[in-house]
Amino acid sequence: MLIVAAVALIDKTGCVLLSQRPEGKAHAGQWEFPGGKVEEGENVGEALIRELREELGIDTETSCLAPLAFNGEGDLLLLLYACRKYKGVPTPLEGQTLAWARPDEIFSYDLVPADKPLAAAVRDLLS
Ligand SMILES: Nc1nc2c([nH]c(=O)n2[C@H]2C[C@H](O)[C@@H](COP(=O)(O)OP(=O)(O)OP(=O)(O)O)O2)c(=O)[nH]1
Questions:
Q1: What Gene3D superfamilies would the database entry show (predicted)?
Q2: In angstroms, what is the span from residue 37 Cα to ligand 1's centroid?
Q3: Pick from 4, 32, 108, 127: CA 20 to 30 A from residue 41's CA?
Q4: CA 46 to each of CA 33, 62, 117: distance values in angstroms, whole numbers, following the listed order
Q5: Taking the complete model, does pTM exceed 0.90, yes or no?
Q6: Which ipTM value was assigned to this complex?
C-alpha cells in the first residue's frame, strides 16, 4: 500500500492550488494536489510539510493541516488535507506548472483520476 499525502492549499480569495504533473512522469499533463509519498520513518504530516518545502518552497506546520478527504484506489491511499496558513509564495521548484483554481473551475482541469472524489470535497468546502 502506497500512502500519498496531498494538500488543498487555499489562498485568501478561496482559490485552491493545483499542480500539473511534468512530462516523463505517470499521468503527465494531468492536474493534482501538491504532495507526495510518505517515506519510511515519517508520519503523514511530516511528509506533507517536507513535500511542500521541496515542491513549492513554502513552510507550514502540523497544526495548520486539517484532514479533509481520502481515497483508496488499487494500492494507492491518498490522504488530502486542507491548509490555509503557510509562509512563503508557492513557487514551482520541480518543473511543474501551478494554477490557482476557483471552486467552480476545479473540474475544468484534467485531474488525475484518483483525485476526482477529493476535488469534489474541496469544491464543497470552498463553495
Ligand atoms: N502528489 C500527488 N500524487 C498523486 C495525487 N493523486 C494521485 O493519484 N497521485 C499519485 C501520483 C503518484 O503515483 C503518487 C505520488 O507520488 P510522488 O508525487 O511522490 O512521486 P511521483 O510519481 O511524482 O514521482 P516518482 O518519485 O514516482 O517518480 O500518487 C495527488 O493529488 N497528489
A1: Nucleoside Triphosphate Pyrophosphohydrolase
A2: 7
A3: 32
A4: 17, 8, 24
A5: yes
A6: 0.92
